[in-house]
């Protein structure tokens, strides 16, 4: 018994690299197996566009198993679609109804410049990490891995924060286009581990300063980021970030 | 050409120490005078770029994605091996070395593999210091688990996201160096040519994937860490952008390609379920710690799994291999799954699947324990298939996953082109004819953090370098060639899409050069690939133009290389008239259908030299010398 198929109408944002303005184009997506992923559905549409002599829709994607963080688009107003904790590549067509119209748009945020169609430039997130999202340790000299025990609860919390895939959905979902969840995740991950403590104050200040400089907005506790995060990263990470920032500022004052 | 692997003399356990002492050093003040290009930002590339920058070299690092953190190492799930013996279960460097050599069916180098096992412990130390959140027990110390091909618990892990966490560790080290100005990052660039001047690798030509411009970069040495070529099969567990271009272009410039037919088919993947499918998803090997593999005893049994009583199930791995059971190495597990399906015992819609059942483990340990270990994998399975592995067994089938073959390198990880180093999956060196689970992460990081930073110094210190700039003729020629290929692809304006042709190539390779091979099939494959290549250049349809982000053009360039490279895989498989590890030629098998090696005639590495398109490559052989282990028939019974 093979999966049922559905017919859809897509309204897709199209914008060339040098175009000042974009527009929605409407394309049919017919005979879509409900076992397909959203990106496989776009592949099928792109094959048809290619055969009709229309340039296919540009979209970022790579691992297609929900971990690289490269894919992402706003589907009917929701970053990565409305399924919880799901990247676009893991969103399957069984969640859509026959005859449905789907609106597909790129991430929109001041700090993410549009490249083409659904492709945006997220290099600002790398710049935030460059500002301090690391532990300063060179290869070569560390002590035995078991010489510093880390309580399991802390290790688990650090892991949960470290699960961020850097897709940018939090920024796209935030009405202020803030990157606080992204930064909170990294600050928490490293601040929770003993190895990350020595630089904790310096790190949090540098990362937040960089975020402001790059044109991301501030957090006003909308919590949209938590709802859309494909890895289920909690806004508790933002609380921890604020606490770390407060501690750092007080120390330096 | 005589291949010299440059394995240091002396006892196995002292080779690396001795070599490190004998390597020339670059004075710390002089390191900043050297420019090094690293292509790729996976575990091998990112760790190499970061570490060389820490040492003081100037590094230019290139990647195909929008940021280095996306490299496909990120998808590795299960874990990373290290001979720490924290579990106190009899592990040692020697045992990890032996397991790896045996797992590879005695087709890798003793010297390289021993060094890998030695370095494994340092990797864990370094990654913990970087903040990699490995799994821990309640005492706060690191936890481990078992993996295929080993009887000790030496695999360190971070849930089912070990690759992600290790890569983010290497990425953070890399970002630190970018922030310091020691690494210059070039994302969304695809390498289209290697530039060789006076016999030495001196730079690369890349295509800027956003603007379409061809750009030249010069350096004193070039490091390729560009991953494997599993996507030759179209369907694989590789990310969509994984390709062979960088390695293949180096091959065309004179680097030998070793053992291209050694491709790992991973036993536990979600089965193929439609013709539109774009990729296959791995379910980590760690699942075989607790999952039991079975098929119905009766061929054609269409009952649902829970309706089949115990007495009518065949737990074939446990039955055939009592001491390793479900944890036999990947090649053995894959071949057995295929064998069961060929007998008509396969399950699911297509009959191309076997069950991986957690019912016993859930009964024994409780759902919570299983969820803590594998929760994210079960979720992923449920998202893709719509079925819950807590309630019904997973359906799995083998899929192309990793390539042991790659550019030939010596003990210094240098290819046959001077100054061209190759790391990670892109080289061929450590896994022989079959890689053990959790060893890819180990090798990528050993190469990048702890081997290349030493050996590249030995090369740079002893080599005179005349000045070469990007306006050198060799670069202009590289650009002209690349432009010609792009124009040629866009000019065909045929009727078939790139994906259609790629899919067809994939099927040819899967049918004839996949889990089992025979001479006649391989010869058929050769004809079919050549024919398909001709069709591609006559009838491919690449829309858009070359001055823009053009993803169809990117794919076309990759498929063009796969269409040549696929032929090399088949030629290599035809040449190796034995079975070993993943390479199973049906004419060479034991009575129990295990791979039957021919150590007298094939105990060597095949290294191929490019002569020209449509011409047979020249074969060079590097004999494999075993002084410390005895070559035996692999047995996991």
Q: What's the arrangement of secondary structure elements?
A:
The complex is a heterodimer of chains A (253) and B (637).
Chain A lengths: L4 E10 L8 E11 L4 H14 L22 E2 L2 E2 L21 E5 L7 E4 L2 E3 L1 H10 L19 H11 L6 H5 L6 H12 L8 H14 L10 H5 L7 H17 L1
Parallel strand pairs in A: 1-5
Antiparallel strand pairs in A: 1-2, 3-4, 3-5, 6-7
Helix pairs in contact in A: 2-6, 3-5, 5-6, 5-8, 6-8
Chain B lengths: L14 H8 L12 E5 L3 H13 L2 E5 L17 E2 L11 H11 L6 H21 L13 E2 L9 E2 L5 H18 L3 E4 L2 E9 L2 E9 L5 E5 L2 E4 L20 H8 L4 E2 L4 E7 L22 E5 L16 E2 L1 H5 L9 H13 L11 E4 L1 H7 L1 H19 L8 E10 L2 E2 L12 E3 L17 H22 L11 H20 L5 H15 L6 H21 L11 H25 L23 H4 L1 E6 L8 E6 L14
Parallel strand pairs in B: 1-2, 1-10, 2-6, 10-18
Antiparallel strand pairs in B: 3-5, 4-5, 7-8, 8-9, 11-17, 11-19, 12-16, 13-14, 13-15, 15-16, 19-20
Helix pairs in contact in B: 2-5, 2-11, 3-4, 4-11, 9-10, 13-14, 13-15, 14-15
Task: Describe the protein in words.
The complex is a heterodimer of chains A (253) and B (637). Chain A has 8 helices and 7 strands; from the N terminus they run ββαβββββααααααα. Chain A is an alpha+beta fold and 253 residues long. A 5-stranded mixed β-sheet of chain A has the order 2-1-5-3-4. A two-stranded antiparallel ribbon of chain A has the order 6-7. In chain A, helix 3 (152-162) packs antiparallel against helix 5. In chain A, 55% of the residues are buried. Among the domains of chain B are: 266-401, Flavocytochrome C3, Chain A, domain 1 (Alpha-Beta Complex); 492-599, Fumarate reductase/succinate dehydrogenase flavoprotein-like, C-terminal domain (Methane Monooxygenase Hydroxylase, Chain G, domain 1, Up-down Bundle). Chain B contains 16 helices and 20 strands. In chain B, helix 13 runs antiparallel to helix 14 (519-539). Chain B is globular, with a radius of gyration of 24 Å. Chain B starts with 14 loop residues before the first helix and ends in a 14-residue tail after the last strand. The mean pLDDT of chain B is 96. Chains A and B meet through helix 1, helix 2 and helix 3 of A and helix 2, helix 4, helix 5, helix 10 and helix 11 of B.
